[in-house]
Amino acid sequence: MGSYTEVTRQSWISRMGGAFKGILAGLLLFIGSFILLGWNEYRSVKEYRGLNQMESVAVALESPSYNEVNDGVPVHFSGMATTTETLNDPTFLVSAQALKLRRVVEMYQWKENKTPRTETKVGGAEETVTEYTYERVWSEGQISSSSFYSNIHPDTGEQMVNPSMMYSSETYTAENVTVGDFTLSASLKARISGSEALPVNQIPPSANFPANAIIRDGGYYIPASLMGATGGPQIGDYRIRFEVVRPATVTVVAVQNSNRSLTPYMEDFELLSMGEFTLAQMFEQAQAARATLTWILRLVGFAMMFIGLNMILRPLSMLTEVIPLLGRITGGILSFICFILALVLSLITIGIMWIAVRPLLGGAILAVAAGIFLLIFFIRKKKDDAPAAAAAPPSAPPPAPGS
Questions:
Q1: Which of 213, 216, 215 is nearest to 202 (CA)?
Q2: Nearest CA to 377 among 344, 333, 350?
Q3: Tens digit of each residue's pLDDT (9 = 90 or more) over 344-380
Q4: What is the pLDDT of residue 403?
Q5: What pTM, to 2 d.p., does this model score?
Q6: What share of the chain is helix, strand, coil (3-state, %, to 5)?
Q7: How many other CB atoms are there within 10 angstroms of residue 187's CB atom?
Q8: Phi then psi for 366, rounded to 5 degrees?
């Protein structure tokens, strides 16, 4: 496979200037990490409390039937989500009686792949070698060829220009979706999943429909050329398929209203799962999802803090990079220090936020942070004491008996 190669070189002085400029960005990342971690724990604590409170007052219904006694109370029920509406795709004239209808559009396009390799030279200069390769792919989103390193293919010499996409993927959702006596809100409908293919079998008689469209693999295929599809796909070809979400069994926990609609509990909490689940299972799933998102954002916050500290301390590492090996050693030491600092500070932030709602958990997290700090302190102190002990003169032997 042919490729283009770009070689760029940055002097040590230029890199040092960039490192000092990066201190501000590092400070912003460092401060932003505390904001993200604090907000994430606040959100997690709020959801933990809200879900527990919602579970304690929720009423489990035997069937999705309305009873005015439960107005204003979270209710739990399972049933078939259905609709009487027929959904239509106005562009391709496909219709189906379903909860959701989705049009999936892909265009055959050029894609650029970059492979950079960076090496620090003696004297602190940095050389980056970037290899650019190209391939043809089916993509649901527009790939901008204007940002390519080159628009001429390195092997064939052909132009690599992606046309603008004339069609895009769309999702159509039924307005009125019910489960028994209850009407689902837009936010609950958004949680419904489980699509299946909707094959098409004829070209609709429409003046607006592309004249060269054909049916292929259960969907529409629109060649870029008016001559039609011959051989393999060409840049600019479209393939369009359709999916539907049919009526299905769902389990819902939400507040019942007098008009038989459903709204969130405390304006934030409503649950919908595909399938039939008990009340306890619904809240187990919700707490597990909350915990997963919390850990993802914790890792993001920790990464922001670690990267920010590295950027702040980057000039110190740069001072030694005139000798590449020494620069790598210094950079490794500073990265380790940043890792420990980010870990301890992240744990402290998380622990403080949990103290109010779960003191034992919050205290345990703070204890782990303190333990890491003390461990590093004692290891450092032991290393500092070792040279001093080795340099101390030997003590005089005790006097012999009778002297």
A1: 215
A2: 344
A3: 889 888 888 777 666 777 778 778 877 776 777 676 6
A4: 40
A5: 0.78
A6: 40, 25, 35
A7: 13
A8: -65, -35
